[in-house]
What does this fold into?
Amino acid sequence: MELLNTFALMSNYVFVPALAYGSQLALGALGITLVFGVLRFANFAHGDLMAFGTMGVVLMTYWLQAQGVSIDPLPTALLALPVGIALAVGVSLLIDRTVYRFYRRRRAAPVVYVVASVGVMYVLNGLTRFIIGPDDQRFTDGARFLISAGDFKRMTGLDEGITIKLTQALTVVVAVLMVAALFWFLQKTRTGKAMRAYSDNEDLALLSGISPDRVVAVTWVIAAVLATVAGTLYGLDKSFKPFVYFQLILPMFAAAIVGGIGQPIGAIVGAYIVAFSEVMLTYAYKRALMYMGPEGWGPDGLMQILSTEYKFAISFLILVFVLLVRPTGIFRGKVI
Amino acid sequence: MSALLTRTRLAYLGIILLLLLVGIFQSWSVAMVMINLCLISAVMALGVNIQWGYAGLFSAGTVGFVALGGLAGVLISEAPIPEAWDVGGAGLIYSVAVLAALIAAVLIILTVMKPGTVRRIVLTFVILGGYFTVRYFFDPATEAIEGVNPAGQGFLGGLGLPILISWPVGGLLAALVAWGIGKVALGLRSDYLAIATLGIAEIVIAVIKNEDWLARGVKNVSGLARPMPKEIVLQESPTFIGWVEWLHSGALSTVAGDERIQMLRDYAQQDAGLFVKLIYMLLFTIVLLILFALAQRALNSPWGRMMRAIRDNEVAAEAMGKNVTKRHLQTFILGSAVVGIAGAMLTTLDGQFTPSTYNPLRFTFLVWVMVIVGGSGNNHGSVIGGFLIWFVWVQAEPAGIFMMDMLTFFMAPDNPVRLHLLDAAAQMRPLLMGLVLLLAMRFSPKGILPEPVRTVR
Amino acid sequence: MSYLIGKDMRGGYGGVDILNGCTIAVDKGQIAVVVGPNGAGKSTAMKALFGMLTLRKGSVTLDGRDITTMSPQDRVACDMAFVPQTNNVFAGMTVEENLEMGAYLRQDDFSGTMAEVFDLFPILKEKRRQFAGELSGGQRQQVAVGRALMTQPSVLMLDEPTAGVSPIVMDELFDRVIAIKETGIAVLIVEQNARQALEIADIGYVLVSGENRFTDTGEALMADPEVRQSFLGG
It folds into this structure.
């Protein structure tokens, strides 16, 4: 019984949140890794692309809500998703056309793209803050819980409940669908294979008649779709705040590099590694240990390894560890 | 070469003119504040130029090194707080000792034991055990320190030394962190340095914000010591008043009695402010000139030549037996140190340490824009970029509001669109700076003052 | 008039000419081999023929049509195929996917061509599901050639196909090249292993300092004492 309570407690505060957060990161990291594989640079603007697309979703959601449109119990944001996606895709293609294509034609060094992407990051950041403002936006509606703590306790008779928010369940389902669709696309379709070929060996892809502009455009479309979906799910789960999205690039980079940059499967594995490390290392284990120990005993402190202010340090430490031990990442990505 | 020289002179002339205009149309006090911040910006740009212009290294964490310089300001100049040391000093020292022992133990295990599962398990336990032991001493100690007079102190204080010492120390602190991060991230792909520096900057700032025992975190440390007397002291000083009397003797001679005393007091007040700013200006100019001279010398030395060779063709340089990674590490450390010095200067000028002001837009991105717009690889360019972009930055917000006002003049004052736009004008800065960078990179990649073309002799 | 002609080609990188007016031509159903000492501009000449080097002077014609300024991608669409010396497979993709990528521009059903490639290189059929990066050097060359054949080219250009493979594999590869030629394709090979390559050549070019030194049938070049002395090691 005590063990089951511990298990329930850990599931509630560690497993479920980490799974949802990991899925959101995975969608984001996939975009980073695809851009890296095809365009060969670390795209610093990805977090702000997420914010930009999500902003479209948030504004559309507000409009739909004002019109009285609802798909209760599901959040209205799902209906608004296409608008945000269209916005993010449009802006990505526009940016590629006006910024990156120029450097591609001149075969600029990767670091030039990185600097340009930082410029793009601030442009997108400025646009987002200009349009929707820098403040927190809560746009979640519909049912809150799939399983509430009370339901769970009644069902199992345990002292500890497991809460599964609808947004968390939705995150996992959508992420699985998106990832499945992406892998099908990359493995089975002609365009997807061309993308992999281009990422694998750019010169040979050109010799095979694969058009770089087309591959690059498709990559941006996919990255923008993934970014908007990831951003929307993150926003539904927590809230939408532009600055937080900017900060998400560090865990997303960490995820992509840990998994092996340019490797889609690596980005997913990396995302869960980062998410679980972050949640597990910042969780206060006091209650869990109390269940494990003898009756009436409890540790003095919170038994928290790192305070939540340092959760970004965890991504960083994982990153440093991987760079030191195995710079190619788990799935042997590209390294120059 | 001579065309570039003319260009350089014109650029400096333009900047001087711009600042004179500010002095004439706004006020001399505003102009001097601007000049001081321009000087600091120029030093920062010089540091980033050493990294980017000399070696092509992209660091996305300049803000972290600025913050480290600022931290040095507190740690050097604040008086030590004996009560804090009494309650927590021992605990802190123990935790540092345990940490050192832990690192030693890990290194010993790594060398003595063979790689494998056993080693991994042992390492995990040693690290976890060591970590909790550190925390066992560290947590109560810091809690006790933060409990000492929390409203005004609650930290260890500093060394109580003159704040000017913090300038080189800030540089050293930044260099130390740069060494660590460079060791990890250099020698891999160029993007990794950018990502790693972004991370270290976020961590440095998180530590500074959250570790109250160190420098009071977001509660700020204000009233830092100054390298010169305060305005209030100056106004009372007979010597200073004597100077003021001499300076304004013409105006003062037109009045007499109480009126004259009042006028003298006003002048003293006004001049004290200007005098302090002037002293800062002199100090900053001296630092800029020294660093500039050093940077120029380095650039024109065989070392600088080698750095350019590496930047322009890493593969060839490596093939010629140059240790590219080592050179990159050197440059990265030097550049970061210069940024650290600028960070300490900024905190000195502000007279306070406010961690919440360290945001990447202001201290990483803006400096980047300065270097690229000014002309990467050209130290004069960095100085010009530092001055010019700081000027644009300061003027961007009022200009944005003015523009929005003009754009929406036909709308009713309470029109929601107009209100939103006016409100959002404050967010113009990132947009504007991003656009400036992208446009500069695209249409003027060499910047205002391009890197001099050096012919092979 | 040959099918593919690079006439009086001059050009190089960064202002320094590597090609000083060399002429290379190959006809359908023919193997042309370009040999010469290191730095003679052999690979550069081939790159120029494929549009990967902008010519300062001279012209390239394909079937009588001037293609001097055409981009490499457009030449692929004109049924020219090129196998680079290194990095010539998609290492992270399967053998089958490599071949599919070769047929990227084709809208029709290419399963017939793939079957032909598998007939030509039976080992590839066996290893079709393996990643190309995991194959041996010789097998990788077969993938590379197979990928190039997937476009059903009229010209196949091979840049030192035997670099780094064993003599047995080299012989086998040259056998395959003869089989390819017999299907009516024009084959152009740049080779370091001059002797073996000239054995299968219908026409051979000996380049020195970016100029034609000797041009004749492979057999005749092999018989020429001067060529033997200077370029074939006696």
Notes: The longest strand of chain B covers residues 221-222. Residues 199 and 205 of chain B are 10 Å apart (CA to CA).
